[in-house]
Amino acid sequence: MKHIFLTGFMGTGKTTISKALREILSCDVIDMDREIERMERMSIPEIFVQKGETWFRQCETSFLEGLKKREGAIVSCGGGVPLRRENVKTMRACGIVVLLTASPETIYERVKDNHDRPLLEQNKTPEHIGELLKEREPYYREAADLEVVTDQKSADEIAIEIKNYLTAVKQCDKVYTRFIFQTDEKEE
């Protein structure tokens, strides 16, 4: 099985959806931020303060490279992962990229009481969230194989939507492989 990379802005449901997907697909979940915290032995806000955002982004890139050698899993990515082209290239090489989206108002409601979001801590408003989303949206969309809106849906509904997509992709791959094989046979 390939990796399933859940991407999107903070508060779009990556962690919650990864747990729901685990129940449906029976595979491991990797929370990239938690793994980086474990490797760096400090929280994300501490990494930002002590080592800087550039260091943190390099940790994300290095972590993705390491996933090439691992068995397929559901990977809950940090919100900035698709901003680097090398990250997108790595994700596409070893999996399917699912973009989770939500409105700025929904995101605000989900993160307003959370203080582990360094990029929002000084300006946690729907307007600021909307500005950041607008900057990141082209990167998110370019990286995505599938986009799922998470507003007003349960985690289970979203997980089923993703599973249905994966099933359809698998069927298309079988048809494509069969078509290529049959075409090659006829040409000989």
What does this 3D model show about the protein?
- With 188 residues, the protein is α/β, with parallel strands linked by helices.
- Helices cover 60% and strands 12% of the residues.
- A five-stranded parallel β-sheet has the order 2-3-1-4-5, with helices on both faces.
- Helix 1 (14-25) crosses helix 8 and helix 3 crosses helix 4 (53-67).
- Residues 175-188 have low confidence and may be disordered.
In brief, what are we looking at here?
This protein has helices at residues 14-25, 32-40, 44-50, 53-67, 85-94, 104-111, 126-143, 155-187, and strands at residues 3-7, 29-31, 74-76, 95-101, 146-149. It is of the alpha/beta class and 188 residues long.
